[in-house]
Automatic annotation (TrEMBL):
Transmembrane segments: none annotated. NCBIfam families: PPR. The lineage of its organism: Eukaryota, Viridiplantae, Streptophyta, Embryophyta, Tracheophyta. Keywords: Repeat. PPR repeats lie at residues 102-136, 203-237. InterPro entries: DYW_dom, E_motif, PPR_At4g14850-like_plant, PPR_rpt, TPR-like_helical_dom_sf. This is DYW domain-containing protein. It holds the Pfam family PPR_2.
Length: 506
């Protein structure tokens, strides 16, 4: 065996075992016998360091190489490896240095951006790929469709689907599921249903995508009917199917049906998982049955994880139970900003300002920053983003003028700001001003400014929409005779004629 072959063999063994000591030893041997700059071996070594959890060593190694003239396969390996660890900028530099790209190179970039939550960049790379006459394949479309689903861009969704048909890409169960998920998350549940009816439905993932789509739209009985049809068509449900059904029940407060389907899990030889228990905790907690939700936590055959406790904490917020909220938060080992905010919300809604202030002080002390609420709206294929009190938009003066006019009109119709939601013990005027400029209100004002009367307005938000914005949107839909669809972190809300499809239960 030659030295080169021996090094290749050693690196493969290091990757399989994630043995950092062996990897650094092999690296030393590469340098000693003159292979320290061998491009193929370097790309393998970078991949090994990343698999060992040492992306810092991998990036350092890349910096030490004077020339990045990797062959196509080696460069693709490096891009994929850095994308897996979230080192997006390094992966992009390697990609930009490549003289040529194949479909694997483009797929690694697009898929990497999607997996790391940078959906708009994934779409931009895809558009660049097309402009350079590179042909996408089924893997390309699978990633792009997932990215579009997260953005909720309706125009982008239609464009991507059209391209898929134009390129004559066969729609297998992976692409079929992705299309159903994309249209569901873009607020086009009827289109998702049409696709479901026209594709092969032998794989459970296709049914899961449709059931989950119906669940987030609050169509619990449709989801349950689809489950029954699935059984009739002899497609066996899996863990994800039951998570979807339980989520659907949770969004609509269907407690007894939720219990029925939870009990049904074991009859399919499926062991209930943490996700199923979490859905039951959420279902009972939302319905105000905190004691029963806590009983589920106690009866679980496994140790409750952070997701379970967060579901319980969220229920405590809904029910304004500070005692149980404190208990839940003490069970969460590593607190995130959302946990602090939920507890602070509980105290504020109960006018326990000292306790709420204590929570905020703890956040500052621990260096935890509150996640900013962000909303976005797609107009003519362009996505416009807003955060609370945003002054960055080029048309901000017109947006605020529309918003302030809407606020005046909604107050005349009986809208009263929900001031107890503001997490500060300040004057009512300051609280009201804080509520007036939430991100979804700015997004809606922009949508009204830029669309024709009667057009449905679609807004996406990264957090759960607040009670005040929810009440306000209902009034706006009534006075303007407009349909407003908001997709928040939890579900879809369709406002029309002063009511919401969630029935004020979300």
């Amino acid at each position: 065996m030659s030295d080169h072959q021996a090094l290749v063999h050693n690196l493969e063994a290091c990757k399989l075992s994630s043995n950092l000591r062996a990897a650094t030893g092999t690296h030393g041997r590469m340098i000693k016998i003159g292979y320290g700059m061998h491009q193929t071996l370097i790309s393998s070594l970078i991949s090994v360091y990343i698999s060992c959890g040492c992306s810092n060593l991998a990036s350092q190694l890349l910096k030490e190489i004077p020339c990045w003239d990797f062959d196509l396969i080696s460069a693709n390996v490096i891009i994929a490896a850095f994308m897996r660890t979230g080192e997006i900028d390094i992966a992009k530099k390697v990609f930009d240095h490549m003289p040529i790209h194949d479909v694997v190179s483009w797929n690694s970039m697009i898929g990497g951006f999607v997996k790391n939550g940078r959906f708009e960049e994934a779409l931009r790379i895809f558009q660049e790929m097309l402009s350079l006459n590179n042909e996408p394949d089924a893997f390309t479309f699978s990633s792009v469709i997932k990215g579009c689903a997260q953005l909720g861009g309706r125009d982008h969704a239609q464009w991507i689907h059209g391209l898929l048909i134009e390129k004559q890409i066969a729609i297998n169960y992976i692409l079929g599921s992705a299309l159903i998920d994309m249209y569901s998350k873009c607020g086009r549940i009827e289109t998702a249903k049409q696709i479901f009816e026209t594709i092969q439905r032998k794989d459970v993932s296709v049914w899961n995508a449709m059931i989950n789509g119906l669940a987030v739209h609050g169509l619990a009985f449709d989801a349950i009917a689809l489950f029954s049809r699935m059984v009739l068509e002899k497609v066996s449900p899996d863990c994800i199917t039951f998570v979807g059904i339980l989520t659907a029940c949770s969004h609509c407060g269907l407690i007894e049906l939720g219990r029925k389907y939870f009990d049904l899990i074991s009859s399919y030889a499926i062991q209930p998982q943490l996700e199923h228990y979490g859905a039951m905790v959420d279902l009972l907690g939302r319905a105000g049955r905190l004691d029963e939700a806590y009983a589920i936590v106690q009866e679980m055959p496994m140790e409750p994880d952070v997701v379970i406790w967060r579901a319980f904490l969220s229920a405590c917020r809904t029910q304004k139970n500070s005692h149980m909220g404190e208990f839940a938060i003490n069970k969460i080992e590593t607190l995130k900003s959302g946990d602090y905010v939920l507890l602070s919300n509980i105290y504020s809604s109960a006018n326990k300002w000292d306790s709420a202030e204590r929570v905020r002080d703890t956040m500052k002390k621990n260096g935890v920053r509150k996640n900013s609420g962000k909303s976005w709206i797609e107009m003519a294929g362009v996505i416009h983003r807003f955060k609370a009190g945003d002054q960055s938009h080029l048309e901000r003066e017109a947006i605020y003028k529309v918003l302030e006019g809407l606020i005046r009109r909604t107050k005349m119709e009986g809208y009263i700001p929900t001031k107890e939601l503001v997490l500060m013990d300040v004057s009512d005027e300051e609280k009201e001003e804080n509520l007036n400029y939430h991100s979804e209100k700015l997004a809606l004002a922009y949508g009204i400014l830029k669309s024709s009367p009667g057009t449905v307005i679609h807004i996406t938000k990264n957090l759960r929409t607040c009670l005040d914005c929810h009440c306000w949107m209902k009034v706006v839909s009534k006075i303007l005779y407009r349909v407003i669809v908001v997709r928040d972190r939890i579900r879809f809300h369709r406002f029309e004629g002063g009511v919401c499809t969630c029935g004020d239960y979300w």
